[in-house]
Amino acid sequence: MVNTKNNQRFRDTEVRMEAAMLHLLKEREFSKISVSSICKRAEVNRSTFYAHFCDIPEMLSVMEDTLADELLARYASPKGPRNQMFSRDSFIPFLQHIKEHQYFYRIILGTRKAFPLETGYEPLLNMVIRPLCERAGIESEDDILYYLTYFEAGFSVILKRWLDQGCKKSEEEFASTITNCIPAILSPKTQASSAGKPPKQQARNGQGPQNE
């Protein structure tokens, strides 16, 4: 078994290569980045790169997981947001993270039409969308997935536009834009008004479909 020191050295080398990739993304188009250029910037040889990654796409996938962990840690921190889900302020730490790594996420969103964080799909569905829909009286799995798809696709497209424009609009301004685009059923106002009400009562109040 590899000892702890060697494990740490392996990880340090990987971080150095990931940092090299981020720097290169700021300087040139993604299509012009090669394994050789990454190795040269990170001061490692090609065999070292291939000991960590099969190719550049796999490297991007690993980097995305690392950045996702960084984002989740930001929300889990005692200083993280404690705001209502989908409120303006709840989006700001996320947008700050995206802006800090905008060159990376521009590539990710340029090759994917789904949620910018691939690992965010299940938590978004099961911890956010599903509870809000069920609270509003929406119990059909198909309908819940429609709301997920709508939010996921719409959010990704406007986020890509923000990135393509160099994040010119501030995080606070763009967070307001996002909240204005959120479907009524998922909005903080609906969450507040439906809290404590049984699903069918919420449906009668126009916050969800009639299930009777």
From TrEMBL:
Coiled-coil residues: none
Biased composition (Polar residues): 202-212
Domain annotation HTH tetR-type: ranges: 11-71
Cited InterPro entries: Homeodomain-like_sf, HTH-type_Tx_Regulator, HTH_TetR, TetR_C_Firmicutes
Residue ranges: DNA binding: 34-53
Top-rank lineage group of the source organism: Bacteria
SUPFAM superfamilies: Homeodomain-like
Record keywords, A-Z: DNA-binding
Keyword Cytoplasm: no
Region annotated Disordered, chain positions: 189-212
PROSITE patterns: HTH_TETR_2
Name recorded for this polypeptide: TetR family transcriptional regulator
Organism: Bombiscardovia nodaiensis
